[in-house]
Amino acid sequence: MTTRVTISVPDEVAARAAASGNASRYFTEAALAQIARERDREWMAAHGIPYTEGGVPRAGATLGQARLRMVPGAWAAARQGPAAYAAYLATQADPPTAATRPAS
Amino acid sequence: MSDPAGAPPETTQRVRLLLDASAVLAYGRSTHVGETIVSLGDEAGFARFGISPLALAAAWGRAGTATAADLIVNLTRHPRYVALPVVEHHALRATNPDLAPGESLQSPWNTWAHLPSPDQTHTVLLALDHECLILTAVPEEYGMPGITVTIPEDGADWPDDASGFWPT
Fold first, then answer.
1. CATH 3.30.559.10 assigned to B13-155
2. How far apart are CA A103 and CA A87, in angstroms?
3. How far is B41 from chain A (nearest CA, A)?
4. A71: nearest CA in chain B?
5. Predicted ipTM?
6. What is the pLDDT of residues B94-121, one digit of tens each?
């Protein structure tokens, strides 16, 4: 079931939605993603799980940085075992170290 | 019909993070685990986190209190949690008909069996399968910098510059 709504959005957003070929789907997907984010927070609050809103983007940035380093070659080396992974790390200009705990 | 939780179809969902037993145990007391899980919601698609069943069992065994044990059950009901199996290729590919009798094929499990506990070994195997990071409070036990992401100590914040996780 769907409901027809009229909304106002910036011109650029409207242009991108139109260019997608299905503006309704474009906005629906964006709204569903937002709903999922809101429900994440509602779930945490309902279950008393501690977190800070300010820490969320910082945690995300940390994950993002880590993923950038784990290129396919890194995963391939890790699959070969500890020695191959250590050898791969040794070839990197800025290898991560085992001392990964940030300074407090 | 759309998923009532707003989740996209299963095909667009990915396991983007694994929690090990130490992260599971930290879930109810450290803000950092919750922040990491919530941050998954800001990623494209419906990013999920997983936990090795062995890590869940290990955390359960170390929970100490009924409240802590309840939190572990609670975590497995999180909408972004996905149950992960112990699959055959992790441990059971120990023989091969092409090998001589008694000769064994190195299994992925054996490759990482030197880690302190079986749940850590399994968590690594899952990470390699899914190409996703491991959130842990004990990165030194893995010795796999790059694959593990460290939970900041209680009272500490995430680093201003995430590259601080990789000191040169």
1. no
2. 27
3. 5
4. B131
5. 0.78
6. 444 555 555 455 677 778 888 999 999 9
